[in-house]
Specification:
Shape: globular
Low-confidence stretches: 1-9
Largest sheet: 8 strands, parallel
Helix content: 40-55%
Number of strands: 17
Number of helices: 22
Structural class: alpha/beta
Oligomer: single chain
Strand order of the largest sheet: 10-9-8-17-16-15-14-13
Mean pLDDT: 95
Length: about 625
């Protein structure tokens, strides 16, 4: 639990909130012409951390403190002492991330067993400097994480591939939040040299770009873990003639999700399937330094409905799935990596969990506030199979977010992950149905997930709107964070539980029949939509008044305005769904004009942070 002196008026705003913070009264006045002294067995390995402190002091305290790596500096010249006990791999994964930050009347002192801990201390110091400037409160922070691995996964396959500038900026944000694992969910958006047809017009990540991002992450103590689906979710490959013959259902089929008009899953019994997987691994993996590899293998919903039907009937769908998963595992081992895989299919066949190799990592995922992380975590723990808990931002299929659900889901994952011994926490950010949500919609759940995965007790009830406003939106007033929080709760005005999304987002992307099924034929009452529009009116009026100290502040305001426009469009479609008669031709023309206007803004907002590939495919999701 975060420990605070009850008699002190100072209230540091930090995210993640440290495990222990003691305020001692008074302030340390930052003076010019001081030194950053780096004390470590190998000072070069702590140089980046010292540079990050130097940058923060320059930006927020307007001083230039030079870096020195010698005990020869007189004590009175030392403004910041960074002491790293062992710059190598000392202690456990959690021990290497431990740090102490002391601010006394004489100086700032950081002590850590390894460079990672020193980096996290510098990130905490950065946030203090952002809040207080040159007059820092006297305090002592002792801190370390609950989970050794705390990640964020971003979907870059439906259909949004960020520019490198956007990715570098996102990595900087995640690093400050003490996230140390980053994954880019990929189906077809890597520039495979042997398979150019699958990424044509998709503006994919090249091998060189992956290596650039990998190095950028590594300097910030973030492990860029390759994430390449290779069993289900292969539609972007299997729709092409040269791969269609490898599909379980080459011409589509009925599934538990409804009818699939296109192939979706590899046929596990076709020798060409594992050969394709081998080729994918051989091309992708050399670009990553990580020793982990997420191979996906989730949602193989058409398995057994086509070419594997007889085998599945004879041996069971779980057994057929596991056999192919083990073939993938062997290929991952050949590359010297530890395999991560989504745990949904194997959890549906718990009798097979014990047959998993004990050096795989199951990624236990679920995105609703009441997902059974407790039950599933207990089952994985009993099996001896290492596992992550994987919640989500709740941003996808929402347009403006689902704040309450995201907080409940991420807290549920963290609490039950810690209880049952999960080795990691992954906050997923998907892009279903065209990835229509702008990136800033995910900032608040990124921060909350980072908080509860760092220390549940001190971050469970954190004032996340205030922290995000100050440290992400650059608005000390708190207005921007409160706006983002409220925008993400507009969905609560419609008292229908729509799993994995919001009613108005589904109204944007679904046709009328599919939307009725999604709403379970529930009649949408006009009073609910009136409440939504009233809240959108209030929020829309706030957007121009948001004052954010960010280089892209104007773009963030535009992205929020676009999200509100899109939410209104979906709300209007919900209202038309409840109409008893067809609209007149003039009304339909007005809707067509509104859609064209919306798509034009969609393109402008998209290109501000993302590559052009996938943009047109995304826009097709906006229904008339």
């Amino acid at each position: 639990m975060s420990k605070r002196s009850q008699s002190r008026p100072l209230s540091p705003c930090l995210v993640p909130e440290p495990r222990s913070i003691t305020l001692n009264g008074g302030v340390f006045e930052i003076q010019p012409d001081r030194l950053i002294v780096l004390k470590a067995p190998q000072p070069a390995q702590g140089f980046f951390e010292a540079q990050e402190a130097q940058r923060a002091l320059s930006q927020y305290a307007r001083v230039t403190w030079h870096i020195h790596a010698s005990d020869a500096a007189p004590a009175e010249t030392v403004g910041l002492l960074i002491a790293i006990e062992d710059a190598g791999d000392a202690g456990s994964d959690i021990d290497r991330q431990r740090y102490t930050l002391d601010i006394t009347p004489e100086r700032i002192s950081i002590a850590a067993p390894a460079a990672a801990g020193a980096f996290y201390a510098v990130m905490t110091l950065t946030q203090l400097l952002r809040q207080y400037g040159r007059a820092l409160p006297l305090l002592r922070i002792e801190d370390y994480p609950d989970f050794a691995r705390r990640g964020v996964m971003l979907d870059i396959s439906r259909d949004k591939v960020p520019t490198m500038k956007t990715l570098f900026e996102l990595v900087d944000l995640l690093a400050e939040l003490k996230v140390n694992e980053f994954q880019l969910y990929t189906e077809h958006t890597f520039a495979f040299r042997r398979h150019p047809v699958v990424w044509a017009n998709a503006s994919p990540m090249t091998g060189e770009e992956v290596m650039q991002l990998d190095a950028y992450c590594r300097a910030r103590h973030i492990d860029l873990v390759p994430n390449q689906n290779c069993f289900g979710h292969m539609r972007r490959w299997l729709i092409h003639d040269q791969y269609r013959h490898l599909a379980e259902c080459p011409n589509g089929c009925d599934t538990s999700w409804g009818y699939f008009a296109e192939p979706f899953t590899l046929c596990p019994g076709d020798p060409g399937s594992i050969k394709l997987v081998e080729e994918i691994f051989e091309e992708v993996l050399p670009h990553y330094s990580s020793r982990f590899f997420n191979v996906g293998c989730d949602e193989t919903v058409d398995l057994g409905n086509g070419r594997s039907k007889a085998e599945v009937e004879a041996r069971g769908v779980g057994r057929v799935y596991l056999d192919f998963l083990l073939q993938i595992y062997e290929r991952v081992k050949r590359h010297g990596r530890t395999m991560q895989f989504w745990g949904d299919i194997i959890m549906a066949h718990p009798e097979l969990v014990a047959e998993l190799p004990k050096d795989v990592i199951a990624m236990e995922w679920g995105y609703e506030y009441d997902h059974p992380f407790a039950d599933h975590g207990a089952k994985f723990a009993a099996s001896g199979v290492p596992f992550y808990v994987c919640g989500g931002t709740s941003s996808w299929n929402s347009i403006g977010g689902r704040t309450d659900n995201a907080i409940g889901n991420l807290l549920n994952a963290a609490e039950n992950g810690k209880k049952h011994g999960a080795i990691g926490f992954l906050n997923t950010d998907w892009g279903d149905h065209g990835h229509l949500q702008p990136l800033p919609v995910s900032y608040l759940p990124y921060a909350y997930g980072a908080g509860v995965s760092w220390c549940i007790e001190s971050n469970r009830d954190i004032d996340i709107a205030r922290a995000v406003s100050l440290h992400i939106f650059g608005d000390p007033s708190g207005m921007a964070g409160k706006f983002a929080y409220d925008l993400g709760n507009v969905y609560t005005r419609i008292p229908i539980r729509t799993y994995n999304g919001t009613a108005y987002a589904y109204a944007v992307t679904f046709g009328e029949e599919a939307l009725r099924r999604r709403l379970k034929e529930t009649a949408v009452e006009r009073s609910w939509l009136t409440r939504v529009n009233k809240e959108l009116d209030r929020l829309e009026a706030i957007v121009p008044t948001l004052k954010m100290q960010r280089a892209d502040a104007a773009l963030v305001r535009r992205e929020f305005a676009y999200a509100i426009h899109l939410m209104r469009y979906g709300t209007a479609r919900l209202e038309r769904l409840g109409a008893t008669s067809k609209h007149a031709a003039a009304d339909l023309k007005a809707v067509e004009r509104e859609r064209r206007k919306l798509i034009a803004e969609h393109h402008r907002v998209w290109l501000a942070r993302n590559r052009p590939g996938g943009m047109e495919d995304s826009a097709k999701n906006i229904q008339l």
